[in-house]
Amino acid sequence: MKARVTITLKPGVLDPQGRAIQNALGGLGFAGVAGVRQGKVIELDLADGTSEAEVDDMAKRLLANTVIENYRIELL
């Protein structure tokens, strides 16, 4: 089984990488982009019997900084 953990910044947290991407897109002529938020995706290959609760614990304890980030788990 696989799990995908998608991590994004919480609303209101400054995103300098997102701002840099937005500026670069504008510089390339893509004027229709009003904002960019950058995040990350982590895919895990899980051993048989690994529960969603264990993946949630992994995300809370290591994968995401829950002070400034939200995360979403998908089992694949």
From TrEMBL:
Gene Ontology cellular component list: cytoplasm
Keyword Ligase: yes
Database matches in SUPFAM superfamilies: PurS-like
GO biological process: 'de novo' IMP biosynthetic process
Keywords assigned by UniProt, alphabetized: ATP-binding, Cytoplasm, Ligase, Nucleotide-binding, Purine biosynthesis
Pfam families: PurS (PF02700)
Broad EC category: ligase
Pathway(s) of this molecule: Purine metabolism; IMP biosynthesis via de novo pathway; 5-amino-1-(5-phospho-D-ribosyl)imidazole from N(2)-formyl-N(1)-(5-phospho-D-ribosyl)glycinamide: step 1/2
InterPro entries associated with the record: PurS (IPR003850), PurS-like_sf (IPR036604)
Localization per Swiss-Prot or TrEMBL: Cytoplasm
Catalytic function, reaction form: N(2)-formyl-N(1)-(5-phospho-beta-D-ribosyl)glycinamide + L-glutamine + ATP + H2O = 2-formamido-N(1)-(5-O-phospho-beta-D-ribosyl)acetamidine + L-glutamate + ADP + phosphate + H(+)
A GO MF label: phosphoribosylformylglycinamidine synthase activity
EC number: 6.3.5.3
Subunit annotation: Part of the FGAM synthase complex composed of 1 PurL, 1 PurQ and 2 PurS subunits.
Function: Part of the phosphoribosylformylglycinamidine synthase complex involved in the purines biosynthetic pathway. Catalyzes the ATP-dependent conversion of formylglycinamide ribonucleotide (FGAR) and glutamine to yield formylglycinamidine ribonucleotide (FGAM) and glutamate. The FGAM synthase complex is composed of three subunits. PurQ produces an ammonia molecule by converting glutamine to glutamate. PurL transfers the ammonia molecule to FGAR to form FGAM in an ATP-dependent manner.
Protein family: Belongs to the PurS family.
NCBIfam families per UniProt: phosphoribosylformylglycinamidine synthase subunit PurS (TIGR00302), PRK05974.1 (NF004630)
Protein name, as recorded: Phosphoribosylformylglycinamidine synthase subunit PurS
